Every structure is written in structure tokens, then in C-alpha cells.
Predict the 3D structure of the following.
Amino acid sequence: MQILRERILTDGRILAGNILKVDSFMNHQIDPTLMKSIGEEFARRFASVKASRILTAETSGIAPALSTAMALEIPVVFARKHQPKTMVGNPFREKTESPTHGNQVELIVSPEYLKSTDRVLILDDFLSSARTIVALVKLIQQSGATLVGIGAVIEKTFAGGRASLQSLDVPIETLAQIERFDGDQIILSELN
Amino acid sequence: MQILRERILTDGRILAGNILKVDSFMNHQIDPTLMKSIGEEFARRFASVKASRILTAETSGIAPALSTAMALEIPVVFARKHQPKTMVGNPFREKTESPTHGNQVELIVSPEYLKSTDRVLILDDFLSSARTIVALVKLIQQSGATLVGIGAVIEKTFAGGRASLQSLDVPIETLAQIERFDGDQIILSELN
């Protein structure tokens, strides 16, 4: 996705630990015009999977997931990291590690909004180690719903997360792929 | 806003402690079509304040704030509750209490995305006690930016939060007002 690639090269910053900072348009400040285009692109790529719901994780997954949900006109559910007072009963829970904070977190979804009859599209901001996405997959498996696709705005191909998702046998779409960091240079893959 | 009022009456649930559960369309699952309409309505009501940025707080403020940002075509910044690895330097910080979890939280914004030249519109999911919104106002004051308006999707008029914002002398817009709970009945105000 060309406008995303250009934005990453212009505004992305490499921090210690191979962390890519895209806080100026996705993870702290959101560029709504870019985010709308991202949603439309995901909707186009996943049109054929006939998803009934989108599942993401708070916080940074919400913007691309909502934008895609607007384009596909299907509801989006964001897994919570803490059980709010409004979530009663026995929610689905999966432990994972927060890539932006480094601590253990739990992802929690109410069975009210993830049904065994659902066809679920997972969307997130990054596909890196894929730990968050794997936790979302396990939540879907708990619910008995069918996973139909996985999308992430930015993929760090060097982090190897995609390999751990291949056995799921669903389409995996990412809109920009980072091959490596070369000093303070971001090297994008030429794939798409 | 009639479609929001109808949705609250149909899907809203009253929980202990005067908590209104609207997890089916705003706080856990998001209805993207309704959320798009909410953003367009805020954009219409705040068109004249000439905002340059929207400020909200993670997590549940993000959807209405992003939707409004899409309609106004201005960036949205979401205050973080924990400082991520990507946020370096000395961010603006304000303590408040989480209405959905009941614990003390800190709202954190990077000075990179809140400038003294900004005209800032605050948006959130609820106007209840207004504690979160007051913390966002203080973040704006720290930055030297100008507050130009405050919007919330649902107002609990009985919680009195609006009174604590009146002295700020900016337009305050809410799209549905809950006057009281009568047993398991939600009583909306007739105002708008």
C-alpha cells in the first residue's frame, strides 16, 4: 500500500530493541484519512472471506479494525486487557505479552460478542512475533467460531511471526512489510 | 440523536452502581455504522470551533474520536494509560480514576502531538462525573493549547459532570442524555 509505505519512511522512527515508532499516525496520534484508506484496503483484500465479525486487541488495533469494520459494515470486538465492571459472567481469556509495554497481559472477550456461528477476521496494528494474534486466534478457538483471515497494518518480516500463523491456513494480509532496519534506515520489502 | 437514543433503550443494560452497559455497540463491541453517524453528528455540531486536533483517552474514547476525526479530517490523539516504549522524553501526565475499572489511572500524552498552537476538541464515550474529561482538560492546559469544545456520546445528567465543566466556557455537546434509571428502565432526557 503505497501511501502507507511512504508514511512509514517519512515518519517512522527506529528505537532500541528493533521497535518501530509510528506514534505520529497510528499508535498515539491517528491520521484519520490514512486510517480510512487502510480500512478500505483491508475490506477489499478480505471481501471474499465473508467475515461476520472483526476481532482486535485494545488499544492500537482498534483504529484499523474499526476503519475496516466501517468499510465492511460488520461489527468489531476489541479484546480488553482488564475485565471492566460491565463484563459479567465467564469471559474467554488468553495470556500474552504486550509488545509495547513488555509485560504479561491477558486478553479478555465476552462470549456475548463471539459466537460459535461467527466467521471472524483478526486485525491488528503490527504482525511482528505474532504473539498477540496467536492469543486472539486462541480466543476464537475457545468460542468455537471460525477464523477466516488475519490482517495487520505493518509486518516486521524479520520477526518471523507469519511462520507461526501459516498452519492456520487462512489468508494473511499486511499492508507494508519491513524487511530490516539498517542503522536509522527502514528497509521495506518490495513484495507489495 | 434519535438512532443513538433508540439503541440505548434497546441494548443498554443497567448494572449495579448506576453503570450503564453499552458493550454491544460502544465499549466492547462497536457498531461501525452507528459510530460513523456519531462522528458525523459531532463534526456537524463542532464545525464552527475550528479544531486542529481531537484529544481522547484510551480505550473507549477512541472509536467516537476517530470517527469524528474522519469526518473533520483532523488528527486524533489518544492519551495512554501506561507509557509505552515508544514514548520517550517527558510526557504530559494527569492522574484520574477509571470509571469502568474503579482504579487510579494516569493519562499520558506526548508533547509531540499536543502543541501550544493547537485548538483542541475533547471527545469521550461518557460524560458522567467528568473526571476523565477534567484530566484531559488539564493535559491541554499543560501543553498551552486552546480547548475549543467538549463532546461525549452519552451523558448521565444525574451524575453532575457538566456543572464542573461550565466554567471552561466552551461548547459541550452530548448525543444522548440519561436523566435517571428507574428499576431496569433507562429514562432519557427529552432535551435532544
